[in-house]
């Protein structure tokens, strides 16, 4: 400036920093703020800051268990204004959870009004609800006014709030905690108070005990919603390492009602929303992932939970329950992460470490409480000693006081003349004349004697750590007497294994029918009564006018069905997975059971008990192509099926036989021809191979099927007009594959073209089914054994417009083979 003075330049406030370092520091600061100040509980009192502030705020407001309820809005406002300025929603949500019996094993807040439900309903607005502390919460806050814990300034420095609560209760274990921090999460399950207190006492008595020893007291978590814990291996791992998994199942019972069964669900896994569970089950039924359920409703009321699952007639309750466990949240996994703040640092703790931290905290609380009580007792005893001195010299002291000019002179004179402290002198000056009576003097001396005894006891406690431990044990025993209850969650020591449905299914032979329009069903073999040859038969399946039964076979419920389609693909299906229906029912559309392509339909089925390495599948197509593939190549099921044989244009897969790779096979055609050759003429091929010629067909001729040559059996051939015969295998000479074959049955206008060929023995029974759905069950020995070049005998009487479409063998021994 003109006068030469300089204006002071502002200090340079720009600091050069590497952005990576700044980001790292800022993120770490934020992380620790979330971890310590919001998301993780303290191992000592088991509370996060917001829980601690809510409980302390209510305690300060005098909202004890025996005091009137007060509006939650008042509580929220007070806590927000004094300690937790993070919004009313967070505080009210915390308050609500502390009052929910399905969220906390032992509630800390006594709520009045709508505090939500296990169905996920929200609590009413805070202006409508009221609350007060539970008595158990007061045990957590007990002795907080005795300098037992440190206090820190609140957010604006105007008040003090506790860093941790004294917590006589092992709250972290009995109520658990869930929280997501930055880069870490905690998920501590609740436990039973009686068991936890017992384990803490055991740990105090046996400091070198192991987790296995503690598990004798705490076998597993105890959830407020009950349920069943399957297995303890994951629990033991979590108790030892701080991390593990446990499986929880809903508790179900079975009721029998009017020839049907119903499943009753009384308890569900922890943190599962009941209404969402019911919706989930309904969706599973709709998507046919769970079968056998006819109705579903919720009958829960104030007396408890009751989900009713009505089963269809004939449905197996164990199977349905197993399906629900596999596909719904009636079975859940609880991932235990026992992470908490210990010494103000996040640590994954074992069960024993949690107990030791709690005991250490209680030792400090009891020590500080004892020191506070000792200080108070010594101070009171000191005052009583001064009063006793005054009582022993009451007349001179009264005379002295009467002469004193003022209170200060009197106090100074008393301190000098009788060697009293200022506090004692002040107490004498404030003493009422009523205490000069003989009775009051006696009371003062007795109280002094009691205080001296108490002081000695308190000093003894402070001098001996074992006495502190005894106090802690006694307090825990009192907690058990006042708040202990029985376990809600059942523990089953065996692990939860996925039960295969077939283990729950009765092993029995079933008749499976497939219609031309693609409907499938199963029903027991004994549905069909045996009849003599030539009988009229009974209805095997109702069909629409344009539909007819195309295939029928017998298999055991436990068998795996390899379902081969006309497109040359194979699908896997257990027999019990096929819906069961009555004789008059048309069944279920096969597209609802298998994933079939447009125009694809099931051509044949092979029941398989196990996929052996030395077995083969021999495939025959309509155009006479054959292929042999090891059975083991079909052992891995795939959704949507896999290719079994590559077909040429216009060809279809007709028959499949299960062989040992060395058997003779007979292939028959509609024109009554057949060829016999050994399957060793066909080398093993992969699934996608096209195959080789098995029989050379004449014009308009097609393959109807094939059968293996088996000792003690004969070749059964049935024609479309209901004629049939048996011929000995010896009548069919073995030649090389690729020939045109020999006459198998004489085809005429009377008996019609051949439709089926089977290998049967005398004690077999046959199921013959027609286009109109008529079936007859007849013994094989009632069909004559005659030569190849014959037209056969009448097997079933048919209407003029009806024809035979399918034949199946029902064997006397119920092995489920049926082919």
Molecular structure report:
The protein is built from 17 helices and 41 strands. It has 4 domains: 47-166, Topoisomerase II, domain 5; 251-329, Gyrase A, domain 2 (2-Layer Sandwich), CATH 3.30.1360.40; 355-483, Topoisomerase, domain 3; 505-810, 6 Propeller (Neuraminidase). The strands form 12 sheets. Strands 14-9-8-17 form a 4-stranded mixed sheet. It is rod-shaped and about 155 Å long. With 819 residues, it is α+β, with helices and mostly antiparallel strands. Helices cover 29% and strands 25% of the residues.
The CATH architecture of the largest domain: 6 Propeller
Please, what is the CATH homologous superfamily of the largest domain? Answer: DNA gyrase/topoisomerase IV, subunit A, C-terminal
CATH topology value of the largest domain = Neuraminidase
| Spans where pLDDT lies below 50 across 5 or more residues | 811-819
Count of all domains: 4
Beta fraction: 25-35%
Total DSSP helices:
17
The chain-level structural class is alpha+beta
- The CATH class designation of the largest domain is Mainly Beta
| Largest sheet descriptor | 4 strands, mixed
- How many strand segments? 41
